[in-house]
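re: ur question from yesterday

yeah so i grabbed the chain u mentioned. its 317 aa long if i counted rite. heres the sequnce exactly as i have it in my notes:
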Amino acid sequence: MFGLKQDWSLHVLPRYFTLEDYEGGTARWCPGCGDHGVLSSVQRICRDEQLPPEKTVCVSGIGCSSRFPHYMKTYGFHGLHGRALPVACGVKARRPDLSVWVATGDGDCCSIGAAHWIHAIRYNMKMVVMLFNNAIYGLTKMQSSPTTPTGYHTNTHPGGAPLPPMNPAANTLGFTNVSFVAQTVDWNPVHVYETLKRAFQHNGLAFVHILQRCPQYTSDIFKAPQEDPDSMILLEHDDGIVMPDAVRKMYKNKQIHNPSDLNAARAAADIVDKIPIGLLFQDESRPRYDEYTARGVGTPADEKLASLERVLDTFAI
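ran it thru and got these structure tokens back, copy pasting raw so excuse formatting
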């Protein structure tokens, strides 16, 4: 085989997917919007994991980030405001063979969708939930969201948002049956990719809180941590999200954090003077509701009939 590199292989998969197989319509987010980088990471993960597009589903609610399914060449469901998670759970319940990605925003998930958020975490169905947090209602033009910082001037609170913001990562760590919580920032594409890849590999619902820039309405909120990595903390552990040395060197502040320790995860998520990024918590032993709902799905007709007959015999007089 003269001329071939030694690391080349003649073993070619029956189907090999490239990035083009996952690139849908041209993304129409504003230039500089953090959503672009997250979209690219998800497309790369789909390519690297060789996920069949027809076996992949993107579900969203309403908001800028919820345009996500339109930009993926997979199945997609652009739902109603706050309803991304119940739709995603319904998909997973009946089609456990599909890879499910959920795109939701701080207003979509933490406001009108808050009840669904709580129950989806408890159900712990295998999927990746990406919360895009730009601390504002961007699609409807700059109203305060549940994560808007206190005192920030918006169209609904021109004198400044009066209430303290929600902390989505800390909130999720307090929900029953939580199994995976991570936090990342859109301006570090390597960290976003590795975090979402780890989330995809998790055996349960993986909740990823993404601090995401909005150049139109909240360009100043994440300006400081973007320009000063010293205002952030890189969480490290052998069981966490391992970063290349080039990324590690960017952060002076590093903290050894065991992601199996729920109390330590809550303490890390509650840090307010700096932004912790990395894997906060993971426990794959938590029960999954989709393992219950999948019972009988795909069972041959004769087995279903026999099962029905056994049930009828139970109630026979």
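noticed a couple things. Residues 19-291 form a domain with the Rossmann fold fold (CATH 3.40.50.970). also The chain has a mean pLDDT of 91.
anyway ttyl
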